[in-house]
Amino acid sequence: MSGFKNGRVTSDIQKELASLIRDLKDPRISQLLSIVKVDVSGDLSYAKIYVSAIEGTEKTVESVKGLKSAAGYLRRELGARLTIRKTPELRFVEDDSIAQSAKISKIIDSFSDSDK
Description:
By secondary structure, the protein is of the alpha+beta class. It has helices at residues 2-23, 57-69, 71-81, 97-115; strands at residues 33-40, 46-53, 89-94.
């Protein structure tokens, strides 16, 4: 039963954080930032949020610095929007999966163009 609650809280956190990040005014945070994955600990006290920016790794690292400085605000807003007893502590981690997938897509496109 705990797994169901953990999965539901994870998806709720991802959805609400995506909405909150769009409203942040910090210039370090990219407007093209996406939340790739959210991992919530078993006791719901910590949440590790993997984020990636389309602009590349440097912009992702800069955005994570901005998100870390806004973590208290984001946690408070999550607590107000979600109906859970304890709002997890947010830890932001940079993830370069979007940049890697764009790179792979370019490689595949170059092979398909050379076949024609």
